[in-house]
Design brief:
- The longest helix has 29 residues.
- The relative contact order is 0.21.
- The chain has 12 helices and 2 strands, in the order ααααβαβααααααα.
- Helix content is 71%, strand content 1%.
- It is mainly α and 309 residues long.
- Helix 3 packs antiparallel against helix 4.
- The protein has a two-stranded antiparallel ribbon with strand order 1-2.
- It is found in: Cell membrane.
- It comes from Cloacibacillus evryensis.
- It is a multi-pass membrane protein.
- Pfam families: BPD_transp_2 (PF02653).
């Protein structure tokens, strides 16, 4: 039981950066804009958060910088996809390469340096609940903020009028335009906001999780976040479940290495990604049987008012 508690608590910590990026992608894709550049955006956010935290000594300033950096680089993607109507897949891949190159260039002198990041903050009473407390309520403030964000987005997307407008823009932008909504402005806002959340996911890695800067430290988490959006059927709560599942497998392979497992280290390090492939395969099989619901109908489709019939 103690081993299980430790692994599950580590799963929450490991899954949080992927969760932030997944939530950002859910919001963006719900608005009809596919952003495959999460890996690059997370890297830029990770470096920005680390640099600002190191300069100011305040991790909250670092997280704010991560959000701002994520918004800034995603604004380029939004301009290309929404205004210029470029191919969203190509633009997303360009964002990945840009993020890799930009973060590597700016972070050359910071490799290996450490900072005083965010500390653990146990929640009173809740942290003392047997089994549940150590898993969910003995973490840092960013983990607790992710809980709130999941609940808020579920409420916002499915139970509010602005959330209905968001879904309308992604499902049927022509109908949304006929209702008087500005499809372009809404897509810009949600795409950029989603990129900001991906930047926060990167900032969590450098400011909270590792508390140091390592080139390429996202290690594929941005791609995992894209996959988890599909796994979660564009639902924030299900995306959170997928993020914690990924974090759990990652935590398990780290614990097995620490225990001196005879299994190859390289094989253990691939476990989280193998699990992701298995999950996506299951989802694809269900889609082939007509059970996959939730993908916005206008996802990846540029909107031109001149084409409205």
């Amino acid at each position: 039981m103690e081993f299980l508690t430790v692994v599950l608590a580590a799963a929450v910590r490991s899954g949080t950066p992927v969760l932030y990026a997944s939530l950002g992608e859910v919001v963006s894709e719900r608005a009809g804009v596919m952003n495959l550049g999460l890996e690059g955006i997370m890297l830029v956010g990770a470096y920005a958060g680390f640099a600002v935290t190191m300069a100011t000594g305040d991790p909250w300033f670092g997280i704010a910088a991560s959000f701002a950096a994520g918004c800034a680089i995603t604004l380029i993607h939004a301009f290309l996809c929404i205004t210029l109507m470029c191919n969203q897949v190509v633009s997303g891949l360009a964002m990945v390469l840009t993020g890799y190159g930009l973060s590597a260039l700016m972070g050359r002198s910071a490799i290996g340096q450490t900072i005083q990041g965010m500390k653990q903050m146990n929640l009173p009473l809740l942290a003392d609940i047997p089994f549940i407390g150590p898993i969910f309520f003995q973490h840092n403030a960013m983990v607790y903020l992710s809980y709130i964000l999941v609940v808020f987005l579920c409420w916002f997307i499915f139970f509010t009028r602005p959330g209905l407008n968001l879904r309308a823009v992604g499902e049927n932008p022509r109908a949304a335009d006929a209702m008087g909504l500005s499809v372009t402005k809404l897509r810009y806002f949600y795409c950029v906001f989603g990129g900001g959340l991906a930047g926060v996911g990167g900032g969590y890695l450098s400011v909270v999780y590792a508390q140091m800067w390592i080139e390429g430290m996202t290690a594929g988490r941005g791609w995992i976040a894209v996959a988890l959006v599909i796994f979660g059927l564009w639902n924030p709560a299900r995306a959170a479940l997928g993020a914690y599942l990924f974090g759990g497998v990652e935590a398990l392979q780290l614990r097995l290495q620490a225990m001196g497992s005879t299994i190859s280290t390289s094989l253990l390090m691939t476990l989280p990604y193998i699990m992701t492939i298995i999950v996506l395969t299951i989802v694809s099989v269900r889609a082939g049987k007509g059970r996959l619901l939730g993908a916005p109908a206008a996802l990846g489709v540029p909107f031109r008012r001149e084409d409205r019939e």
